[in-house]
Fold this sequence. Notes:
The complex is a heterodimer of chains A (167) and B (385). Chain A is an alpha+beta fold and 167 residues long. Chain A has helices at residues 2-31, 128-137; strands at residues 33-41, 48-49, 52-58, 78-82, 93-97, 108-111, 119-122, 140-146, 152-159, 162-163.
Amino acid sequence: MKKDRLLLVAVVVPILGLLALWGRAQFNLASGRPWVIGIQGYDPRDLISGHYLRYRYLPRWGDVDNTCGGQELDPGCCVCFVADPDPEVEIPWMNQRGCDDRPAACESWVQGSSLAGPQRFFVPEEHALQLEQALRERDAALEVRITDDGVLAVDHLRLDGIPWTPR
Amino acid sequence: MSHARKLVQWRDAGLLDDEAVAAILAFEARQHRRPVGLYVIAGLGALTIALGLLAIIASNWSAIPGGVKIAIDLVIAVGLAAGIVAAHRRGIGWLREALIALDYGFILASIGLLSQVYHLGGATWQAMLLWSGLTALLVTRGESRGLATAWIVGLQVTYGFCLEAMDAGTREYELFAFAVIPAAPLLCLLASTSRLVRARRPAFAAALAAIGWAEVVLLASVSTLAYYASPTYREALGAGLVYGMAIVGGLTALLAARAGALVDETPAAAAPLRLYLVAAVFLGYLPIFAQLRGLGLLGALIFLGEWALVAWYAHRSHQLPLLNLATAVIALRLLIIYFEVFGSLLDTGIGLVSGGLLTIGLAWLWARKRRDFAGEAARTDGAPP
């Protein structure tokens, strides 16, 4: 009987784990503050690698000098997001600082490791070529969400400001 | 059955009586009742399905919305869980093992699916670690060797991804990751000596020991190549290397102390086993730690010495196939040394003569020890002296 109960626990644990992972991803998307960040292919010769688009974020640095990491996104720093005063401009101003140096004006604050370096966006295999061409010719950006505790969740890909959906 | 005719011949020759023949036939009949073929086919089927599911997910079935995909995935996970419990309650062992194997692969595929749908940018090692953690209790409910092997391989792949991530960090982490590579097989061997594992999961203990030994011998053999070239890690003998070596050294000492548990039936084999373990680990680190370089001949000699220890262990533990393998590897390595010493005519001549003599000596020793071995095996099998 005890063995039976242990087996029940053993088969339930992975399902609970998957549910937790799903719930967390959904919560981050639902509760985070929305932002749009420009992106570009990580390697211009090879934008699509298998089933995912390799890209990097294009930060829009503001007038205030970065006090950490210079002009490159640095995984050891944190990035402050402030919305552009012009409501027509969706891409926010960004400023990179030490993680213990959050200015009060920041509307979102995220660890640089969530933004720095190559990123991956999964795409359907059959749309890979079409998307690769579109990325070369059009402005690409990502809709992301950043929660109050600094978790960044990727939502949609945009091409020329229009959310891209596989057709 | 093929052995039945032999048994009749032995009985007719007076080597066995009727009672012994009947007992052997009854034993073999019991052995054949175990559905080994069924286990293999079911295991292969489960593995094929798991791989198929991975491929489907990887190909992005874009027509279905993400939320629906995940819901279907969870329904399948619940179905598999119910199937495992039902098979267990009905006592269908082979089906339970196959479903556990399938669920093990399916959970990894599900984590992959969630990563795709939500574009989770985490590293591979994080996904692998999550998978190993979530499925550890499930897989250890299994009892077959195939499942145990799949699990150990899964754990070691996870360990490899973790080390790779560490390797991409600072110099100290890189050195540490390099130094703790041997911990994987040593931990397998250590786990295989656990009384609890042996009593409750004998198939797991056997798989742990088999994989652990194969990897220790492979690592020890490959590490002798480091004597040929300048060590990659020569510039920095950092703390990372020392910490890693201390961990591996501690595991080796613990294993040497428990060597008796690795050679239950042949206690005389414990001595060569201890010596091999300590020598393999120490000599594996030596070229890096002592900054040795360009000492190919020393590396070759260490290789031969280590395999001689394997042969000694095989002799003491009465494992004729292992003794044959060790002898063949030594002979092959000697052959490679001939080519390594090719240089001037004098060097080549001396190398070939001494190499040839060594090979003939080895063949003589092997033939003699093989005879001794057969004699000892016959004596230990119950023949009165």
